[in-house]
Specification:
By secondary structure, this protein is of the alpha/beta class. The chain has helices spanning about 15-20, 30-40, 55-65, 75-85, 120-135; strands at about 5, 10, 45-50, 70-75, 90-95, 110, 140-145, 170. The structure holds S-adenosylmethionine. S-adenosylmethionine binds near residues 9, 11, 53, 79 and 113.
Length: about 180
């Protein structure tokens, strides 16, 4: 899937297509998405930022929870290509390079699912959090970083919590 390229993960060479075919159910991600659903509560009608939206799965997830509009941003052009191909209603996907092209205080909430595992330093994580925080309308930001050690063979994936390290939910507060 994602391979290291110049210190960054890259989803070229079929990685983005593979990611687009994953889904949530039956994958090791399932527990994490469920934890996020519980953490978010009722988001019906809200405007959300999906930072590191990948091939569109997490944006589709937010819409399935009732988000009224989702802005999905990602730095990987192949992932954005896959996301756009989903033609998701109520979602705007944009390729980004550091700066999120949304006005300050323009979204009700933000998530970042399975992304921070790809950020290589605290400085990079800090930049991302500040950028995300600037888009929020109000205090209270849930940035969620989930990461599991994933077996390479999808048939070995498990949704058994006993076999997985706990997912991490980071909650940061807008200053
Ligand atoms: C493992 S994928 C997760 C995609 C999606 N959130 C999901 O759960 O299906 C991680 C994504 O984060 C993106 N990403 C990593 N660092 C980023 C950054 N600094 N800015 C924007 N996107 C980033 C990668 O390009 C990749 O598409």
């Amino acid at each position: 899937m994602g391979s290291a390229c110049g210190g960054r993960s890259s989803y070229a060479s079929g990685g983005a297509e593979l990611y687009a075919s994953l889904g949530i159910e039956g994958t090791t991600y399932e527990i994490g998405f469920e934890a996020v659903r519980r953490a978010l509560g009722d988001i019906r009608g809200q405007v959300f930022l999906d930072f590191g939206c990948g091939a569109g799965r997490s944006a589709a997830f937010l819409r399935s929870l009732g988000a009224g509009r989702v802005y999905g941003v990602d730095r990987d052009q192949d992932m954005i290509g896959q996301a756009l191909a989903m033609r998701l209603d109520g979602v705007v996907f944009t390729h980004v390079d550091e700066v999120i092209p949304l006005p300050d205080e323009s979204v009700d909430g933000a998530v970042s699912l399975n992304v921070f595992i790809e950020l290589r330093s605290l400085a990079e994580m800090g930049r991302a959090c500040r950028e995300v925080a600037s888009t929020l309308r109000q205090a209270g930001l849930t940035v969620t970083a989930i990461g599991y050690p994933m077996p390479r063979d999808p048939s070995a994936w498990s949704t058994d919590e006993a076999l997985l390290s706990p997912c991490i939910v980071l909650t940061a507060v807008k200053a």
